[in-house]
Amino acid sequence: MTLRVNHLSKRFQTFVAVNDLNFEAEEGKIFGLIGQNGAGKTTTFRMILNLLAPSGGTISWNGKAVHTLNRDMIGYLPEERGLYPKMPVEEQLIFFGRLRGKAKLDMKKKAEYWLDRFDLADKKQALTETLSKGNQQKVQLIVSLIHQPSLLILDEPFSGLDPVNAALLKDAIIDLKNQGATIIFSSHRMDHVEELCDHLCLMKRGESLFSGPLHDLKAQFGKVNLTIRGPFEKEELSVMPGVVSVTREKDMFRLLLSDEEQARNIFDQVTERGFIERFSLDYLSLEEIFKRKVGEALV
Fold first, then answer.
1. What backbone phi and psi angles, to 5 degrees, belong to 8?
2. Would you give the end-to-end CA distance of the chain in angstroms?
3. Mean pLDDT of all residues in 160-182
4. Is 118 in the same domain as 227?
5. How much is the average pLDDT of 53-68?
6. What domain range includes position 271?
7. 122 lies in the same domain as 269
8. Which of 19-28, 150-159, 198-207, 271-280 has the lowest mean pLDDT?
9. Are 43 and 52 in contact (CB under 8 A)?
C-alpha cells in the first residue's frame, strides 16, 4: 500500500506553510521528510492525520482518501509528547492500545514485549513523570506502534535518545519496515535519515527541493568526497587542480572536489610520491547535501 501526496498545499491566511507538495511513501519502505524548522514537515503530518484540512491537493492511501480510513491503522509519534505523567507506564501503554480498539489482554502482552525490548521492564509500574527524558521518549514510541499500525509517522523520534537507545529504536523501525509497514519520519539527524531511508523529500519553506530515492539525490552532486591517507601536507593538496577545500581529520585528509573527474589526475599526482595508505572517493553525506540545498547550516 502506498501513501500518495499530490499537489498538497496549506495556507494560513496570507502565510503559505506547504506549497504544491508531491511524494509517495511505499509499503515496506522508510520515507524521510526533512527540512529546517518551519519547513512545513509537521503541518504535512497533521494533514495526513486529518488534524488539519488541506487548502489544496489530495492525500490518498491505496487509492482512497486518507481521511476515510480507519484511524486505528495509523500510528503517530508527535514532536510534542503527549503522555499522562501520573499514569504508570504499563497501564498507559495498555490504555492507548485500548483506544485503538485492541483487547486488553493482547495489549498487556504487547506492552511486556516492548518494555523488555526497550530495557524498560523494571519501569512498568513507575509513574511516567519519574522517567528520564530518554525513557519517556521510548514509552511514547511504544504508544505509537503497540497497535501494529500499517502507517507509522514519526516526528523527531530520536530526540533525547543516547546512541544505545537510538540503536534500539532503529532496530525496531527496521523490523516494522520488514513486516510491511509504511514508515514516514522526520529528523534533524541526517545520519539517521541516511542510514534508514529508502526515499526522501527535502523541504524548504513549504516547498519540495527534491523528492525521490536517496541515491538519486546523491548522484546529482557526483562522487566529490575524496579521502587520502599518506605522506602529504595540507598545503600541497590544496593547490592541486580540482580541489575546492581540504580538511585534516587525525591522520587523513578530506578533499572536496569540483567534480569527480578530477580524482584520476589527483591519484596520478599523489602516487608519484610513492606508497599511499588510502585513496577513496565517495558521495557527499546527506548532511553536506542538506546544507548545500537549503543554503544554511542545520538548526
1. -75, 135
2. 34
3. 91
4. no
5. 91
6. 222-282
7. no
8. 271-280
9. yes
Q: CA 191 → CA 12, 159, 188, distances in Å?
A: 33, 14, 9
Dist CA 282 CA 157 (whole Å): 28
CA distances from 66 to 9, 60, 148 (A): 15, 5, 18
Alpha carbons 146 and 141: distance in angstroms, whole number: 9
For the chain, percent of residues with pLDDT exceeding 90: 75
Give the closest residue to 55 by CA, choosing from 25, 16, 22, 23: 16
Is residue 28 located within the same domain as residue 121? yes
For residues 212 and 233, membership in a common domain is answered with no
Exposed / middle / buried, residue 155 (Cβ in 10 Å: 0-12, 13-18, 19+): buried
The number of folded domains in the chain is: 2
Least Cα distance to 245 among 225, 269, 262 occurs for: 225
- Amino acid in position 284: L
- 295 vs 222, more confident: 222
Clarify whether residues 38 and 129 are in a common domain: yes
